[in-house]
Amino acid sequence: MKSELEIIVEDLQKISAYTNDTLDHVDDADWFRQPADGINHIAWQVGHIAIAQYGLCLKRVRGFSSDDDQLFPVSEYAKLFGKGSQPNPDPEVYPAPEAIRKSLKAIQQQVIEETSQLSQETLDEAIDPVHPMFSTKGEALRFAPKHEMLHVGQIAMLRRLFGHESLR
């Protein structure tokens, strides 16, 4: 029987692979397209996944590290893609699609690496402040792939709205 930690890491690995496979089928020309004003574009979705994974799996679990800005520009991503941010139709406001993907992959890799080394005691530790969806570090880590999948679904929907075939 797998441990809670093994299940969490496996889920993080699976959703990372699924996300990246989906993004392999997104044309760069579609990254900043919006089907209507105010609707998040693919660039926002991917940047949001990156900053959310950072917040859920790294910052909430072990706190901020001075090395985090080497993974990606944390404060810039929080402003552009964090909770409450609004999509801007001007691509010049954002990093290029390849830079956003690079940031996402760096976060995914770091999350899996650090999560793999956690103890059950760490998973059981309370998070302060408590979130409406979770109250422990383990619950935050279990929520992260669900949150990522929600946004990958939105990316898939945007692809379809832009006239592309379904991937699955």
TrEMBL record:
The lineage of its organism: Bacteria, Pseudomonadati, Planctomycetota, Planctomycetia, Planctomycetales. This is DinB superfamily protein. It holds the Pfam family DinB_2. Coiled coil: none annotated. Residues 17-155 form the DinB-like domain.
